């Protein structure tokens, strides 16, 4: 493995960490409805737990209401029960074949709790990026120890890895700030 391989692998893994962080952010509730909010809710479908999106159409009716349209007649009650029992604090209402999931307005206290949750997620993502930096630097040091690269190469590689890390951490900070702004908007 060369220094270039180490740098490209590290960058790829850091990009994946940020993608996972973005995915986690979509699950954090803001004041507005988002179909991705129900992605973590699983429903019993012929003996196996599957995401709601695999047994129904999940879409938005308006900015505060998610609609769930089951593909099979008998799934409505199961989907409604799964949403109610999830830890999202939602209360679905069935209207014939359609299940409406209104999102209650968030209190100021709840908004502050959500921003703390976003910051914690951001910190976890930063830790993941820093761990990748540490692993990459150790790999470069191993190459120098095995005499496959010079110490000058090591210095340059560590500087490049640090720049990549700084760029990714700045991206995480930006995502955290925009999500906090979204949550605090009434």
UniProtKB/TrEMBL annotation:
<dbReference type="GO" id="GO:0002184">
    <property type="term" value="P:cytoplasmic translational termination"/>
</dbReference>
<comment type="similarity">
    <text>Belongs to the RRF family.</text>
</comment>
<feature type="domain" description="Ribosome recycling factor">
    <location>
        <begin position="21"/>
        <end position="184"/>
    </location>
</feature>
<protein>
    <recommendedName>
        <fullName>Ribosome-recycling factor</fullName>
    </recommendedName>
</protein>
<dbReference type="InterPro" id="IPR036191">
    <property type="entry name" value="RRF_sf"/>
</dbReference>
<dbReference type="GO" id="GO:0043023">
    <property type="term" value="F:ribosomal large subunit binding"/>
</dbReference>
<dbReference type="GO" id="GO:0005829">
    <property type="term" value="C:cytosol"/>
</dbReference>
<keyword id="KW-0963">Cytoplasm</keyword>
<dbReference type="InterPro" id="IPR023584">
    <property type="entry name" value="Ribosome_recyc_fac_dom"/>
</dbReference>
<dbReference type="Pfam" id="PF01765">
    <property type="entry name" value="RRF"/>
</dbReference>
<comment type="function">
    <text>Responsible for the release of ribosomes from messenger RNA at the termination of protein biosynthesis. May increase the efficiency of translation by recycling ribosomes from one round of translation to another.</text>
</comment>
<dbReference type="InterPro" id="IPR002661">
    <property type="entry name" value="Ribosome_recyc_fac"/>
</dbReference>
<keyword id="KW-0648">Protein biosynthesis</keyword>
């Amino acid at each position: 493995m060369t220094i270039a391989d180490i740098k490209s692998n590290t960058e790829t893994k850091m990009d994946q960490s940020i993608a996972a962080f973005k995915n986690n952010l979509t699950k954090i509730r803001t004041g507005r409805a988002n179909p991705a909010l129900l992605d973590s809710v699983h429903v019993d479908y012929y003996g196996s737990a599957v995401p709601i999106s695999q047994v129904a159409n999940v879409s938005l009716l308006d900015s505060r209401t998610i609609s769930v349209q089951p593909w099979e007649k008998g799934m409505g009650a199961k989907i409604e029960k799964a949403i109610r029992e999830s830890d999202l604090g939602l209360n679905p209402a069935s209207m014939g074949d359609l299940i409406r999931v209104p999102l209650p307005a968030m209190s100021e206290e709840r908004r502050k709790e959500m921003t703390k949750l976003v910051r914690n997620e951001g910190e976890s993502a930063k830790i993941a990026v820093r761990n990748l930096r540490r692993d990459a630097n150790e790999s470069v040091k191993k190459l120098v120890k095995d005499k496959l690269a010079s110490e000058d190469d090591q210095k340059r590689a560590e500087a490049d890895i640090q720049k990549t890390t700084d760029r990714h951490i700045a991206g995480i900070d930006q995502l955290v700030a925009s999500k906090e702004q979204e949550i605090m908007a009434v």
